[in-house]
Amino acid sequence: MNRFITFEGVDGCGKSTQLRRAAAWLRDLGHDVVTTFEPGDTPLGREIRTLLLAGEFVPLPETELLLFLADRAQHVREVIRPALASDAWVLCDRYSDSTLAYQLAARKLGEGAANLSQMLRFAECGVSSSLTLWFDVAVDEAMRRMNKRAESGEKATRLDDEAASFHQRVSVAFKQQYHDESQRIVRIDAEQGMDDVEAQVANILKQRFGLAV
Ligand code: TYD
Questions:
Q1: Phi then psi for 182, rounded to 5 degrees?
Q2: Residue 45: CB within 6 Å of ligand 1?
């Protein structure tokens, strides 16, 4: 089993904070940990991220999908696979489950296009997570958190600004993926306070990877 763990959920679910916290305590235990994210964590990916999210261009849904996959193709080969080969833990903020939820489900590109799953696998080049933490939070609450961030000056991305109905479709899709793959995907109750959520994450990592803490 690899130690590639992905963090997923709707925008505003709190996964990025939890990823940082998990990385910190794994490092305290002496583990080698690489933290990364999609889209945009390679030099080329940074350019793709700007195209995708800065809002200067509004890509067609098909183009949007291909850009996310291009970012992943670069990212997995340049960052994730080498890190796993060096025996590091890799904690990744979003991966293929986001593409399934945002592009295939919420953008409705998955309808009648069975070969898209082959494209997803092509981008991944055989690297899939052994554990995915799904931060489950009601869309209303997630949007409240995003509004708060906006008030404190954080810039929203083009996708953050999508309608509530879009985020709702993303949320339903994550729930469906969790039901379909309940071995790989673990649900985190992300409505709780940050410390409680951190404890849930820690417990799952301890159980799955036999960490002695
Ligand atoms: P980001 O600013 O990194 O925020 P977050 O903390 O929510 O991850 O934004 C990334 C955005 O890209 C987010 O709205 C989800 C979206 N996304 C997709 O639509 N498809 C994908 O395959 C990935 C990886 C991300």
A1: -75, -5
A2: no
Residue whose pair of structure tokens reads 């991966």 in the numeric block: 95
* Global confidence as pTM: 0.97
Atom of ligand 1 nearest to the CA of 106: 19
- Return the CATH number at 201: 3.40.50.300
The count of domains in the chain is 1
Tell me the CA–centroid distance for residue 26 and ligand 1, in Å.
24
Tell me which amino acid residue 8 is: E
Q: How far is the CA of 1 from the centre of ligand 1 (A)?
A: 26
What sign for the dihedral angle of Cα 84, 89, 93, 96? positive
Q: Rounded to the nearest 10 degrees, how much is the dihedral formed by the CA atoms of 156, 149, 96, 120?
A: 0
Does the CB atom of residue 39 touch ligand 1 within 6 A? yes
Beta bridge partners of residue 133, listed in sequence order:
7, 186
Cβ of residue 41 lying under 6 Å from some atom of ligand 1: no
Strand order in the sheet with 4-8: 33-37, 89-93, 4-8, 131-136, 185-189
Domain containing 17 equals 4-209
Residues 45-102 pLDDT 10s:
999 999 999 989 999 999 999 999 999 999 999 999 999 999 999 999 999 999 999 9
Q: Is 178 in the pocket of ligand 1 (CB under 6 A)?
A: no
